[in-house]
Amino acid sequence: MSFRILHRLRSTHLRHTLSLCLLLGALPVFGDTLLVANKSEATLSFVDLDAGEVVATLPTGVGPHEVAVSPGGETAVVADYGTRTPGHTLTVVDVPHAKVLRTVDLGEHKRPHGILFLPDGERVVVTVEEARAVIVVHVGTGEIETKIETGQDVSHMVALDGSGKRAYIANIGSGSMTAVDLATGKNLGTVETGDGAEGIAVTPDGSQVWVTNRAADTVTLVDPTSLEVAASLESEGFPIRAEVTPDGKKILVTNARASTLTVIDVAQRKVVKRVPIQIAVGSVEDRLFGDRFGDSSVPIGIEIAPDGKRAYIAHANADKTQVLDLETWETVATLTAGREPDGMGYSKAEVETEVETE
Questions:
Q1: Are 259 and 237 in contact (CB under 8 A)?
Q2: 37: part of which helix (H) or strand (E)?
Q3: Per residue in 169-197, pLDDT tens?
Q4: Is there a contact between 151 and 174 (Cβ–Cβ < 8 Å)?
């Protein structure tokens, strides 16, 4: 019997798993998976978190920046942002079978970036920068069901409240945050937060919206009811992303220039910790940020495990994803996916690797 493996197996653990599965006549199945978008090589990596190894790599459109995973973990959608030429597609992926299902062409809606699944698992909400808008796309049909204009420049990242009915968009060029009602298609208003508003996170109860202002080196708390600024905290070093822990108690902010993580206590509305997260850097040539941030490893994307015990932080200039223990704040591992990792998604769906036998 001969076989051809359609992905690279790089650990003894994975090779033993494959051998056993072939002996039993079954495909190898892996546990929780981290999906990593690799910007400069236009790929999506599947990282088995038990082994810490890549088990599959799929092609995407040019410049994949962000990844959305459906509530059940079976489907992932990648926003193909583009490079110098604006992107206008979404790559839809079957996670359990590690394969690309289709490419959705967004037409005139260019520079798709921030992307999240709605609770129904059938539609995604996507920011489209050149259209100065956010759109709702049906993943199965590719139909653009709703378009809501923000009227702001570089509408970049998006966050949802717990109901999935209201979305909040961070607008880099306008230094603002826009709230929209996805059910009615209405723009509810915009509030200025600070220069370079980029990262955004909403607490699970929907009572707080946090926006990172990268040029202002601040993180702003917005009251979603009044759409007024409730607090502004310092976060030095180009705060670029924000994620809330599953229990809603902390906001994690990556600072791309400083290579640090700012930890905000939600209840106290204050910074309680600054964690150094620098990873060794190699060559910075031909990268999006280049040497703009000196020797920083440029931490950007954050993905928090559903149990809230670990955070995965993508370092674009180091080609590594850091695994951070959220109790000890220590690095417990570093993962290697592709070149310039950024957006990530977490899936608990079982992933079968593709193996041919004859």
A1: yes
A2: strand 33-38
A3: 999 999 999 999 999 999 999 999 999 99
A4: no
Q: What CA–CA distances, in Å, run from 159 to 102, 243, 276, 322?
A: 25, 10, 26, 23
Please report, as a single letter, which amino acid is at residue 323.
V
The residue among 282, 245, 274 whose CA lies nearest residue 258 is: 274
Count of other CB atoms within 10 angstroms of residue 29: 12
Is 3's pLDDT higher than 80?
no
> What does the alpha-carbon distance between residue 171 and residue 92 come to, in Å, rounded to a whole number?
25
Separation in Å, CA 339 to CA 129, 135, 157, 228, 246 = 24, 29, 22, 39, 29
Domain of 71: which CATH number? 2.130.10.10
Contact 117, 68 (CB under 8 A): yes
Read off the pLDDT of residues 328-347 as tens digits, 9 standing for 90 and up: 999 999 999 999 999 999 99
Alpha carbons 116 and 63: distance in angstroms, whole number: 17
DSSP-H helix ranges across 9-168: 12-24
pTM score of the predicted model: 0.91
Whether 223 and 188 have beta carbons less than 8 Å apart is answered as no
How far apart, in whole angstroms, are the C-alpha atoms of residue 102 and residue 230? 43
Q: Could you tell me the strand order of the sheet in which 53-59 lies?
A: 53-59, 43-48, 33-38, 341-347
Q: How many structural domains is the chain composed of?
A: 1
SS3 (DSSP) at 248: coil
Residue 304 pairs with which residues in a beta bridge?
311
Rg (CA), the chain: 20
Q: Which domain holds residue 111?
A: 3-357
